[in-house]
Structures are given as C-alpha cells and as structure tokens.
C-alpha cells in the first residue's frame, strides 16, 4: 500500500513528527511532502527514509543468526560429542547518505563476536566520500578487501561458515579492532580495484601499531544474476617486526561452536587445532607476514560454481626461527532447486530472492576445503602435532531454504580429516584425526 500526504507551509520539524506517527501506524510505505525535498519512507526490510533528490537518507536494519551445532572427534579435546547454541551474529545496522557524496555505516554486533569490550563490538563503523566517482574513499573501522567469499555478506554466503583456508589468513581480511583508509575505483560495469592501509590493534616494542596493506582487483565480464563470470586476485602484507603477536596457523575447520561468543560453546573441551606457529611469538622472531589469493566464479541460471586459492608466508627475522608457509583452497558448487539465480554485484554474490512466496527458494550446496602448513620450527612430535606438514580436508554438504526475502533457514553436515594434527587432553594425545559436525541456523534480516 502506498500513501501520499501533503503538508503545505509547515516546517520540516512538524513533518518529522507526522513521519513518526506514520511509522507507528505501521504504514508499509509513504511519501511526506515538506517545504524542501519530498521524503520517501520505506518499511519493507527495515526502515529507510530518504529525500527524493537523494541528498539525504538513512536506513536502519539488522541481521540475526541463531545457530545450534553438535560435533565430535577432532573438534573436541577428548573426542567425545559436544554441542553449542549461540548467536553467530546479532547486528544492528545503520547506514545513510548526507549531502549526496558522503555516506556512513555503523554495524554493531550485539552477540560480541566482532570487536571487543575495550574497542567496542563494531563489525564496521566507517565514513565514505563518493564525490570523486568512480573513485570512493572510506575511512574508519572495516574489514580490508581480500577474497570473494569474504566480500559476500554473511547474510548471503552459501555455507554457514566461510571456507577453512581463510583461517590461515584471519588477519588479512579482518579489521582486528584497528582503523584504516581504503580507495576503491569502479571499472565500468565489469570490475574494480581497491587498496587500503590499516593500523591494527597490536603494537611493536615502541608502541607503533602494526601496519597492513591490502589490494584486490576483480574483472567480471558477465555480471548479472544467473549469468556470471568472475575472476580476481588479492594481496595483503603486514609488518610484524619488533612485535609480539599471535603467530598461530589454526582453524575451526568449519565448526564455529568449538570456540565462539554470543552464547554457549564447547567450553574447555572445544578444540581449535593449531597447524603451525605459536601464540605470543616474541618480538624480533618474524619480519613480515604476506598473503596472496586467487578467486574465480561462474554462474548460469540456478547453478553456481566458485573457488579460491590462498597462500601465506610468515618470514623469519632471526636465525632461531624458520619461515612458516601455509596454503589452501576451496571449491564449491550450489544449485537452486526452485530455479532462482544467486544475486550478483561486481565483486561479490548477493541474495537469492524466492519467486514462489508459498514454498520459497531451496538451494543445495557442497564445498570442499583444503589447507596445509609447513612449519620447520617443529622438530619433535608433541601431543597435538607430528613433524611434517600439517594438513586438513573438510567436506561441507548442506541446504538453504530462503523462506522469504527476510527469513533463511540452513543446515549443514561437516566432516574433517587431518594429517599430523591431533586432539589432546592435559598434554596427553587423544588420537583423533577426524571429526563430524552438524549445524543448523535460523536467520532473520531486516
């Protein structure tokens, strides 16, 4: 339903009061005419208010993801079954435009899986200037640009958790409570390039924060929903010289419930295997940390295929240490049984919008993850690690039901197999090198 009201000779302040009354009356959409530009109100999918000349506007929305999972084997220290029930994300999202060229985003995570008590639980808090189109400049707290699956919103990523290979480079596409500046330039309708410089929430011996540089380029000659051809490359580098930092190469292997916030996890029995490196690596042990990534995707109608390759090198800065190298990849195929295509915007996939309002859209997917870590600093076997390359293979098989444009229900079976990596209790090897898990999620987006 659409309503239009005209208030001639009335101040904007009174129009705002009338607007509040219209919202409280649960109007689906409406237009308020003021002595300035008209105001358009939309309440489908959150609350959006904007002037018709597009100079000013704001939107209030959010996402809620409630998860439950059960898992055993390598996912727990003693190998027995554990479970977890938690909010994976509970975001309150506010975004807007001011004076046409300025934009802002504030995403606050009420589940506390983003940020920290000291730095604020922000997933993003940034300001952008778009007056140099096609160049956009962003400053604030945001995730650096690295990888296709990371660029795709957690609302619309296919599997419940992003691929395990990303765990090798968790610093490369995470803000880690730091701040940054990014420049992004669109290349017509077919691609873009972005670069960013970040100051991370970790200091060297002099109190100078760790600096990180990111770059990503995307070319998509086919860039419409159901007709996608996408290729891209990413690079990230951070300076960790003269700094004590977490140098572990570790992974949850697709099961967030082994260690998470926002509710109950597996507690002290949750196992997050370490494939290389060590926590609190002393100052002067390593010089720089570098990551590279390649990505590709193809979609035709309801079928989509995508994959990425990741490589990381942590360079030694002391004769007492060796370089640590890791690489990984994933390959994913998804098919929508009801015929809908995955949405696509240059550089990332977007939502599936169900065509049949009665049955929604049903999507099946399978993803294979692989990762490997070469750490020659490991010269003797421990309770959790044998000498040699630590490896893992993870299978993800699942279904997504897009009941409406706002409601998505998902279920996934995850099976992991490791090599030279084990679980242990009190430094005594349990001996599991594989594990199974099951995850269900209810998501509401507004």
TrEMBL record:
InterPro entries: Porin_dom_sf, Porin_O/P. Pfam families: Porin_O_P (PF07396). The keyword Signal applies. Residues 1-29 form the signal peptide. Keywords: Signal. The keyword Nucleotide-binding does not apply. This is Porin. It comes from Pseudomonas mangiferae.
């Amino acid at each position: 339903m659409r309503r239009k009201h005209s208030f001639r000779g009335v101040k904007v302040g009174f129009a705002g009061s009338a607007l509040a009354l219209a919202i409280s009356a649960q109007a689906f959409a409406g237009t308020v005419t003021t002595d300035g530009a008209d105001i358009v109100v939309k309440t489908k999918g959150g609350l959006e208010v904007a002037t018709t000349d597009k100079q000013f506007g704001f939107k209030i929305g959010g996402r809620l993801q409630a998860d439950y999972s059960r898992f055993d084997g390598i996912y727990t220290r003693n190998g027995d079954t554990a479970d977890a029930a938690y909010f994976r994300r509970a975001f309150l999202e506010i975004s807007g435009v001011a004076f046409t060229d300025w934009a802002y985003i504030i995403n606050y995570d009420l589940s506390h899986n983003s940020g920290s008590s000291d730095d604020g639980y922000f997933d993003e808090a940034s300001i952008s200037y778009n007056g140099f189109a096609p160049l956009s400049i962003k400053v604030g707290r945001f995730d650096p640009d690295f990888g296709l699956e990371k660029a795709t919103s957690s609302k619309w990523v296919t599997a419940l958790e992003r691929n395990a290979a990303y765990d090798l480079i968790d610093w490369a596409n995470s803000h880690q409570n730091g701040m940054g500046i990014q420049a992004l330039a669109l290349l017509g309708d077919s691609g873009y390039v972005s670069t960013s410089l970040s100051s991370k929430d970790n200091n060297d011996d002099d109190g100078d924060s760790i600096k990180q540089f990111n770059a990503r380029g995307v070319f998509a000659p086919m860039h419409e929903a159901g007709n996608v051809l996408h290729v891209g490359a990413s690079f990230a580098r951070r300076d960790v010289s003269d700094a004590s930092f977490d140098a572990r190469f570790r992974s949850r292997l697709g099961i967030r419930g082994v260690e998470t916030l926002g509710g109950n996890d597996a507690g002290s029995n949750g196992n997050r295997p370490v494939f290389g490196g060590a926590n609190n690596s002393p100052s002067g042990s390593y010089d720089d940390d570098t990551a590279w990534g390649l990505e590709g995707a193809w979609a035709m109608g309801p079928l989509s295929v995508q994959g990425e390759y990741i490589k990381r090198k942590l360079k030694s800065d002391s004769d007492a240490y060796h370089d640590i190298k890791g690489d990984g990849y994933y390959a994913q195929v998804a098919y929508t049984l009801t015929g809908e295509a995955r949405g696509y915007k240059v550089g990332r996939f977007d939502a599936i919008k169900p065509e049949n309002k009665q049955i929604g859209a049903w999507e099946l997917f399978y993803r294979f993850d692989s990762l490997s870590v070469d750490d020659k600093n490991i010269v003797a076997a421990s309770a959790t690690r044998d000498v040699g390359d630590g490896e893992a293979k993870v299978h993800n098989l699942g279904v997504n039901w897009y009941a409406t444009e706002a409601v998505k229900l998902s279920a996934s079976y995850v099976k992991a197999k490791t090599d030279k990596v084990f679980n242990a209790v009190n430094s005594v090897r349990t001996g599991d090198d594989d594990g199974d898990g099951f995850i269900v999620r209810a998501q509401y987006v507004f």
